[in-house]
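2024-03-11 09:14:02 DEBUG pipeline.ingest accepted 1 chain
2024-03-11 09:14:02 DEBUG pipeline.ingest length=462
2024-03-11 09:14:03 DEBUG pipeline.predict start
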Amino acid sequence: MKETHGVACPDFWRSRALSRREVLSVGVLGGVGLGLPALLAQEAAARAHAGARPRATAKSVILLYQWGGPSHLESFDMKPDGPEDSRGEFRPMASNVDGIQVCEHLPRMAKVMDRVSLVRSFTHKFRNHNPPGYYGLTGHAPPSDDQRLRDTPDLFPHYGAVVDHLAPAPKEIPTFVSMPAVIHDGSAVPGQHGSFLGKRHDPLLILQDPNSSDFRLPELSLPGGVTATRLQDRRALLSDLDREAGLMERLGAARGLDVHHQRAFAMLSSPKLREAFDLSREPEGTRDGYGRTMFGQCTLLARRLVEAGVRLVTVYYCRPSGGFIWDTHKDNFPELKSTLLPTTDRTLPTLLLDLEQRGLLNDTLVIWTGEFGRTPKINKDAGRDHWPECYTALFAGGGMKRGFVYGASDSAGAYPTENPVRPDNLAGTLYRAVGLDPATHVYDLQKRPIAIGGDPIHELFA
């Protein structure tokens, strides 16, 4: 286990009262309508130096998180010869890789399976949504399977927050972006932000629908009447106030505050980032290819963001409110046939081909997964219930093998029979891909060392 040389500190705003001088500093920024500094302005924590790192195989990650739990049995691990009460209505179809079949309602995916790896042996024991949702977004098992699990600073941060802590993007580009909602089941799912690493490592959170004709990003837009020159003038004023008060010399935390202000200003003045969010620059045919859905246009935006240098983008396939879509307790087959599989079949292969055509697939790790799978047995409502004991995740690009299957499930798709893995291993795989040793540890609020991930799935790497 490798030790980092910095301790993540508590949230600056909660750690002590703000002085009149600090309130004035924040007020200067508030006057130009900056919501982002409030996110970034936290107590500076020393950045970890993890020593020797594994060779990175990916520069960026796009995590397509299928909130609700997609059925592995109606997507990438079908069992046409399984028990009659579990095999379902859909038939498998051959893909462009010998021996790999997919659901008949994924015909476009069938043509790109030579670009992906499937892991058919993910498993854990958490049956409610929020606990395994947290597990899948952090690689750390929740303390219990209680659906009332609430977000607290003691729980582990999202993968993107860890990457931002250990290997951030350039200051004018956010390391970590999430969209289009905060997912929840009664309460917000833990593990979607910086947690004990601090709010400075929270994602740039996009709570708008990119499929909307009026989509824009207010955080990167100057308010009316504020020009770039005026913004720089206000920044200079803030610097003058800092010098006069001597705050930077007196308070190390305030020095960190200034760093985050500078990062916010850099983002606001970055043409590269503003252009990345401008979907009107995309040809109509490309936008149509991804699908004119919230998920499709979020995925297109994710491609534009990694192209601009963002290191990790999470796209939640969820309802606009953040509620789950894949939770098919009833009418499983009509829901999958009419909406879920066609959307997936349009968006996911389009992303892979688009990244490949742009020369980005080798440098971008794409992960398609959810918090669990669905029960082998079909219930009385023609649905499938929660099933964490066995499910499938898809990996593509970023140094992964192509046309490869790791692990296997039994004849009913109920339990792994070969190479069982857990979300800990997904975390280790992701971190190794971006050049971080999963054995590196960070400190929680009690200054306890915690490894960032489990063992990578080494067999996935080409």
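2024-03-11 09:14:41 DEBUG pipeline.report Residues 332-357 form the longest helix (26 residues).
2024-03-11 09:14:41 DEBUG pipeline.predict end
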